[in-house]
Structure to design on (1116 residues):
């Protein structure tokens, strides 16, 4: 009886008993959701255009952030370090396309997936040799990101909203809108989508596979950099950030591997849901730390009813 | 081909293993002192300054005095990345020549501990490992001077209660810890104390994958409004917790960490806003002490150190704690050399040395470590020594001493040590318990 | 020359599909077994046992389990580490509850626990495919590791939340625990691995194995010819998780001696997956080759700088090591996407035809 009450009554009493706290929880969920969505977006772009499940997206986040901070540490001002980091990400994209992807064209999915894990390991070793393993502070203020916090007092409580979290959300929205415009309006963007629809048809009308792949990986690199700045400004930049890639995978399951909308909606949903569950159910009833698996279990449930995810393309199979 | 690969690889490996040892063949008068370090991985941030300190003290002695009593100190690192599997591999690799094991992680300690009895190599785990290792009769080969985690927990409680634990009655203490053997270590003691003194105790685990994003944990803290938050953090978790604490506006003066949560680099991330954060510590940096000046002269200024000078690592609590850790090991070596009247001691002799560490006021002064470590001494029955510790406080740019020397509540800890040690021995029967030690 | 097949006539279909269609294959296997059972134990140092031989065998076994699921039945799983954990924790509970039980029996029983858990998490495979299934198995990975941490009954409420292997005797010889000798443990592991390998070879060559392969190649087609997909997929999950669970029990009891929950985290799963893929999906032998490459090579590599006398900090060596392993994986995937087993098959073909080029 106590257990039932703990599951069905008490959490809701808590929620409505302290609405300011609930708002804070929702906001925190929304911010992490934004970040999950960003990482998932990187996955989706690459998967859409090349059917590669890019496990290295997580390490690209770390690598981009480390490059930015590392360049700044070597004495470059932020406004030089930032474009230079983009150049590094472009070089990385070209290198990955040349060295890894091109020889592996037409291999089974799982082989390409493994290759991206190989890239992950390589980048971990490379990054640690070049930049060292210690935790570094993100150059938040040098990049012009405000650091204070806004405070509201609704319902007699208090809600504090970090300005940098706000910047993250706004930045993510701008990035996503820009990306959507690019994908839907520009010639290159349409080429990417064409490649996603049908490789051979796209090739036959003169779309260059290798250019598009470099472009897609570069865009994924830009997204990685944005994610890295956002996460890094919260907790510093170190290789421990790599694990956030795992948080994006259930988002992909939920939203569907090919859907940009799915990545965004799925990310936000999972961010908010796992925070709510952890605070109101996980911590009182299960000893906490449920965030590691909650998203996966939810995604699994959804998949049982919709095997292609919420927004994925319907899988039609023929013999 | 199948056998080809297998045999070439294996024979290469088998050939390479002794070769590796031969390649690094120590001259007759060098002691092999391996350190299972971690300069990579999510815990590297906290590992690096400690390893640098350990290394630099040994280098300094080699440069200044030509080692100890004419024997060079062969400090060598084996990289584990805080990974238990790598740690055990390193242990196997170094045990042939090494006379000590410094496992550097509670997880690796747990794995190596049962083997130490068989391989007869002492484990030196200063300020970490199993708290029950204090019981030298049960854990004959393991040493955790100068203070155990339970000591640390007890000292923290004393300090936050103002010396009278009963004043904590009705208060709520949240225990933010890494969900790992290390973080769980002090829970039994906290629970016993909570029962005895009537405060409520709330463990809040932080998973390894959540170290950098603790918003759920800090929301819980905000909801529960604990009177104190005690942190058992390591690696990237410390920085994550401190930034979240600033964000949640949790009062810094109610936030206390164990000695592994006092990395200057983590606090520098928040700077002024971290003011008031406290951490218990059995060491204190004193850059003016003769030893530190010698390290500066012989190692740092000579360009042999690996420290990050720009970040001011030389002044850091962790770097100088690393120096102290090596000092303990070297004192153990000296004691063994004197007792057995031999220069090149072996692992068993070092064990005796570690059992007879004497850090009294006079020897601390003569070593040039004034103000850096409280006095303590070990014995065959007590492998910890119980130096006690100071509460350090972050003043916005560095840690300062914020209390007199605190001592742990022995009456509360010792029975727990005895029962945990007995439990360990029973679970691992047949477990040899020392009969020689009459203390 | 070595592989001359002249004089080996096949007169029946069965002979053509024998385990060793070429006599030399049998000789080769015999040679390897002699090496494994006689030569290595006599020559290996304790370090070689503990850092090379035993881990290679245990990882091969885990990869073999995964390979049955992924390589034969075509279901990609990223939860191997957690299933190994189930085997290890089950074995620990069995051994502590029934201390008199023979360790072989305990390990064999613990496999059933992980098999049951594997089947439970295999259920979604009936509806989900490909990468979606792979991510779904990650749910098992994260949930089970969380459970290992939270459910203190699993580790007998020990304050360190770790399981510690006690000394276990079998017929008067200590086989597990701190006082066990490396050579005993090696033989123990070797015997278990051999037994499971024989079982795996037989099951994959038989009816069940063929059903799995047909499901892997195209499940809808398989269903149309009358194969019960549910049964096929779930038996694959069962057998695979059983072997993985046994590997997990060996991993902790015969090698590591102690374990905490995060030992079974995702890097372990990936490591096993690497072995299976680099070795060759759908091959039994590949697992051994893959394990040698992935497990033993880094150990050997890390001794190279010291052996050559190159002064290199151990941290840098470790970074280089990670980089090299990453690069090697990519290189191998590019050179031979079907794994080392395929590489060997090509070489063997060449040997048979030698000295003719084609």
């Amino acid at each position: 009886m106590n257990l039932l009450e703990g599951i069905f009554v008490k959490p809701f009493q808590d929620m409505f008993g302290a609405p300011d706290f609930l708002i804070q929880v929702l906001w925190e969920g929304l911010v992490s959701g934004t970040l999950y969505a960003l990482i998932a977006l990187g996955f989706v772009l690459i998967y859409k255009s090349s059917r590669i499940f890019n496990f290295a997206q997580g390490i690209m986040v770390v690598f981009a952030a480390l490059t930015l901070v590392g360049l700044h540490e070597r004495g470059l001002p932020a406004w030089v370090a930032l474009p230079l980091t983009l150049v590094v990400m472009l070089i990385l994209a070209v290198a990955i396309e040349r060295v890894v992807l091109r020889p592996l064209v037409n291999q089974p999915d799982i082989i390409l997936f493994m290759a991206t894990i190989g890239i992950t390991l390589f980048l971990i070793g490379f990054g640690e040799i070049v930049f060292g393993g210690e935790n570094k502070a993100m150059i938040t203020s040098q990049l012009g990101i405000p650091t204070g916090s806004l405070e509201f007092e609704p319902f007699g409580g208090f809600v504090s909203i970090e300005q940098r979290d706000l910047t993250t959300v706004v930045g993510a929205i701008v990035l996503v809108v820009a990306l959507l415009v690019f994908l839907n309006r520009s010639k290159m963007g349409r080429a990417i989508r064409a490649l996603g629809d049908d490789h051979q048809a796209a090739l036959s009308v003169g779309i260059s596979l290798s250019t598009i792949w470099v472009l897609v990986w570069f865009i994924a690199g830009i997204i990685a950099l944005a994610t890295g700045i956002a996460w890094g400004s919260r907790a510093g930049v170190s290789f421990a950030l790599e694990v956030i890639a795992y948080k994006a995978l259930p988002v992909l399951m939920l939203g569907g591997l090919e859907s940009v909308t799915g990545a965004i909606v799925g990310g936000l949903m999972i961010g908010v849901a796992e925070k709510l569950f952890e605070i109101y159910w996980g911590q009182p009833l299960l000893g906490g730390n449920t965030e590691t698996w909650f998203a996966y279990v939810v995604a699994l449930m959804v998949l049982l009813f919709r095997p292609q995810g919420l927004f994925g393309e319907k899988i039609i199979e023929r013999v | 081909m199948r056998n080809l690969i297998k045999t070439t690889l294996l024979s290469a490996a088998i050939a390479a293993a002794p070769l590796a040892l031969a390649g690094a063949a120590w001259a007759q008068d060098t002691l092999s002192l391996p350190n299972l370090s971690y300069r990579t991985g999510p815990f590297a941030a906290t590992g690096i300054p400690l390893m640098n300190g350990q290394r630099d003290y040994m280098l300094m002695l080699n440069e200044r005095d030509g080692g100890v009593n004419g024997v060079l100190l062969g400090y060598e690192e084996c990289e584990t990345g805080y990974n238990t599997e790598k740690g055990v591999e390193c242990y196997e690799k170094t045990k042939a020549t090494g006379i000590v094991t410094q496992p550097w992680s509670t997880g690796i300690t747990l794995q190596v501990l049962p083997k130490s009895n068989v391989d007869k190599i002492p484990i030196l785990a200063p300020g970490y490992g199993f708290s029950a290792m204090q019981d030298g009769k049960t854990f004959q080969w393991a040493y955790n001077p100068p203070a155990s985690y339970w000591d640390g927990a007890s000292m923290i409680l004393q300090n936050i209660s103002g010396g009278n634990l009963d004043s904590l009655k009705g208060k709520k203490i949240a225990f933010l810890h890494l969900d790992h053997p290390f973080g769980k270590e002090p829970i039994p003691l906290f629970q016993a104390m909570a029962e005895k003194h009537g405060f409520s105790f709330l463990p809040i685990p932080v998973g390894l994958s959540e170290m950098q994003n603790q918003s759920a944990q800090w929301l819980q803290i905000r909801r529960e409004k604990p009177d104190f938050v005690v942190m058992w953090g390591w690696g990237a978790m410390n920085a994550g917790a401190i930034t979240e604490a600033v964000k949640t506006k949790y009062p810094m003066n109610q936030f206390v960490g164990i000695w592994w949560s006092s990395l200057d680099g983590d606090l520098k991330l928040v700077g002024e806003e971290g003011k008031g954060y406290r951490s218990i510590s059995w060491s204190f940096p004193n850059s003016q002490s003769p030893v530190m000046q010698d390290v500066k002269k012989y190692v740092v200024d000579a360009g042999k150190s690996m420290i990050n000078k720009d970040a001011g690592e030389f002044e850091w609590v962790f770097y100088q704690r690393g120096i102290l850790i090596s000092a303990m090991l070297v004192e153990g070596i000296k004691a063994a050399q004197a007792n057995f009247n031999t220069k090149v001691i072996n692992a068993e002799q070092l064990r005796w040395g570690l059992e007879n560490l004497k850090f009294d006021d006079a020897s601390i002064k003569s070593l040039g470590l004034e103000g850096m470590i409280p006095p303590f001494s070990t014995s065959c029955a007590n492998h910890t020594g119980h130096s006690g510790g100071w509460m350090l406080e972050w003043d916005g740019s560095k840690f300062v001493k914020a209390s007199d020397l605190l001592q742990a509540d022995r009456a509360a800890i010792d029975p727990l040590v005895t029962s945990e040690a007995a439990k360990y021995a029973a679970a691992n029967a047949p477990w040899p318990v020392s009969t020689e030690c009459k203390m | 020359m070595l592989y001359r097949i002249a004089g080996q006539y096949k007169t029946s279909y069965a002979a053509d599909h024998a385990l060793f269609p070429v006599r030399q294959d049998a000789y080769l296997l015999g040679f390897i077994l002699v090496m494994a059972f006689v030569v290595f134990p006599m020559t290996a140092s304790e370090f070689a046992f503990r850092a090379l031989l035993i881990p290679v065998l245990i990882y091969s076994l885990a990869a073999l389990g995964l390979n049955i699921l992924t390589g034969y039945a075509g279901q990609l799983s990223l939860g191997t580490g957690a299933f190994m954990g189930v085997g290890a924790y089950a074995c620990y509970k069995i051994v502590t509850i029934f201390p008199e039980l023979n360790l072989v029996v305990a390990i064999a029983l613990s496999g059933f626990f992980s098999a049951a858990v594997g089947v439970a998490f295999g259920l979604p495979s009936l509806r989900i495919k490909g990468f979606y299934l792979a991510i779904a198995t990650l749910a098992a990975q994260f949930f089970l590791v969380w459970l290992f941490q939270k459910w203190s009954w699993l580790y007998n409420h020990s304050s360190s939340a770790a399981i510690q292997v006690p000394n276990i005797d079998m017929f008067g010889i200590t086989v597990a625990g701190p006082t066990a000798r490396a050579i005993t443990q090696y033989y123990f592991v070797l015997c278990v691995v051999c037994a499971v390998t024989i079982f795996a070879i037989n099951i994959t060559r038989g009816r069940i194995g063929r059903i799995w392969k047909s499901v892997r190649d195209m499940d809808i087609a398989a269903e149309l010819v009358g194969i019960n997909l549910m049964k096929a997929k779930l038996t694959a999950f069962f057998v695979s998780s059983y072997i993985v669970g046994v590997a997990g029990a060996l991993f902790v009891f015969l090698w590591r001696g102690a374990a905490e929950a995060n030992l079974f985290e995702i890097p372990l799963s990936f490591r096993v997956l690497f072995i299976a893929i680099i070795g060759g999906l759908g091959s039994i032998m590949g697992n051994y080759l893959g394990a040698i490459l992935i497990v033993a090579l880094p150990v050997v590599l890390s001794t190279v700088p010291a052996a050559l006398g190159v002064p290199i900090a151990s941290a840098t060596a470790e970074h280089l090591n990670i980089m090299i392993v990453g690069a090697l994986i990519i290189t191998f995937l590019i050179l031979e996407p079907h794994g080392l087993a395929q590489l060997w098959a090509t070489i063997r073909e060449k040997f048979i035809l030698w000295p003719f080029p084609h």
